[in-house]
Design brief:
Blueprint lengths: L1 H7 L9 H5 L19 E2 L6 H11 L16 E2 H7 L15 H19 L4 E4 L20 E7 L2 E10 L2 E8 L1 H4 L19 E5 L1
Parallel strand pairs: 1-2
Antiparallel strand pairs: 3-4, 4-5, 5-6, 6-7
Length: about 210
């Protein structure tokens, strides 16, 4: 989720809204915390290689709370310094996703915020196409190519969505679910040439 927000900012992470970053907050079972909410506070990233920036973002995923006693007071911090501090990697690999409800909720919240910004109104109930919550078994709605895919609800109707990585960020697309089309009332004779379905709408989010 952090990498999705970073890429979607198109090089301006300071423009990522605080409420988006706030969904990345997490406390692990071992007491460690995520610095995801500080994603838009990273500085001096423009002088670093893409791999170094990605590593710094991963490092934000799990830190010891004693190292960051006043997270709420942080106004900015150096990406380069972050790499220096954690270059010894006290936590092993960076596979931090825990199989719990908290992770599923955070994925749903972030995807909901992204889709709402594209859709133009608040959407809800982010699920897989089979109706399941984001969870480890469906890789938290992410496919092998990095695309997030599933369904959402708006005004009592179900829509299919995809948020796919693109050359210059991410592209969000959606369309009304086939089940909803079948519920539409039959066309009146004088309106038979009108299209009652919602057209596919898409645009990049950044």
């Amino acid at each position: 989720m952090a990498r999705l927000l970073w890429d979607a900012s198109e090089g301006c992470p300071e423009d990522i809204p605080d409420e988006y970053c706030g969904h990345l907050s997490h406390e692990y079972l071992d007491g460690s915390i995520s610095l995801g909410p500080l994603l838009n506070k990273l500085e001096d990233y423009s002088e670093m290689e893409d791999g170094e920036v990605e590593e710094a973002i991963e490092m934000l995923g799990k830190v010891h709370p004693n190292d960051w006693p006043n997270v709420e007071d942080v106004e900015g911090f150096s990406c380069e310094e972050l790499l220096k501090v954690y270059e010894e990697d006290a936590y092993g690999d960076f596979n931090f996703v825990e199989d719990n409800l908290g992770t599923s909720e955070k994925v749903e919240r972030v995807l909901s915020e992204v889709l709402s910004s594209v859709f133009g109104d608040k959407v809800s109930d982010i699920r897989s196409e089979k109706g399941f919550y984001a969870n480890p078994k469906n890789n938290f709605l992410q496919e092998d190519d990095g695309t997030f895919a599933g369904t959402f609800n708006y005004d009592g109707k179900k829509f299919i969505f995809e948020i796919a990585p693109a050359e210059n960020g991410w592209i969000a697309t959606y369309r009304i679910h086939q089940d909803e089309i079948s519920k539409l009332p039959p066309k009146q004779e004088e309106e038979k040439d009108k299209d009652h379905t919602r057209r596919v709408r898409h645009r990049g989010w950044h």
